[in-house]
Amino acid sequence: MSMRADESYGQRGLTMADRLGAWLSQRAIRRYLPRRSDLEVLELGCGYHAAQLIALNRTLKRGIGVDFHVAPELQALERFTFHEGTIEETLPKLESETVDVVMLISVLEHLAEPHLAIQSAWRLLRPSGLLLINVPTWLGKRFLEFSAFRLGFSQTVEMDDHKMYYSKRDLWPILVRSGFKPSQIRLRYHKFGLNLFAAARKMDLD
User: Fold this and answer.
1) 147 DSSP assignment
2) Integer angstrom CA distances of residue 133 from 25, 61, 161
3) What are the backbone angles phi and psi of residue 148, rounded to the nearest 5°?
4) Contacts of 83 (CB under 8 A, 6+ apart)
């Protein structure tokens, strides 16, 4: 199955590997998500069906998704707003300090300037807001490319669009330079070490 670089994730369906990865990411998200029912959550790169965001429905007051394209039927959902376009185009249009959680799930590795997305997340979060990030690791690079290029289990265009892989030492300084305090950053490897998950809370700088 092929896809264009400007298509949203899942626009032409998901492989079994994709579904497993999404399920594991959902578990990691719920581990850190505040136990409330009034959260306002922004997901950058939400995918065509916004499955991760919609799965949080019971905890949401409002959900906001951004991606190239979003399934038309999602626009009619109550409490959800979707913006179609690139993350870089959309971020300046979003108002500062208006969300409780920003999610970048398997998205940062596709961005040419990932630090700008993280800096924008800091701006958009309310005080004590939470940034959640999932990225592939350097170990994951070997596995993902073998799976895509040799076995055909994943979409090759998806892998060809990867611009970076991450260790804790790669991601931590970007978070700190963007305004997140070291004491408020949690990093852990998951998915058998193939991915890195970050939870960073916004605290006052003074």
Assistant:
1) I
2) 10, 21, 18
3) -80, -50
4) 64, 65, 66, 90, 93
pTM, two decimals, is: 0.87
Beta strand ranges found along 33-184 (DSSP E): 39-44, 60-67, 80-84, 99-105, 125-136
The pLDDT tens digits for 32-46 are 998 888 999 999 999
Beta bridge partners of 40: 62
Contact indicator for 132, 186 with CB cutoff of 8 Å: no
For 120-130, letters b (16+ CB in 10 Å) and e give bbbbbbeeebb
| Residue 46 to residue 104: CA distance in whole angstroms | 8
Tell me which amino acid residue 55 is: A
**pLDDT tens across 99-151, in order?**
999 999 999 999 999 999 999 999 999 999 999 999 999 998 887 776 666 66
Distance CA 97, CA 54 (A): 22
How far apart (Å, rounded) are the C-alpha atoms in residues 11 and 108?
19
Q: Report the C-alpha gap between 40 and 102 in whole angstroms.
A: 9
* Residue 77 pLDDT: 94
- Write down all domains in the chain, each with its CATH number in brackets: 16-201 (3.40.50.150)
pLDDT over threshold 60, residue 1? no
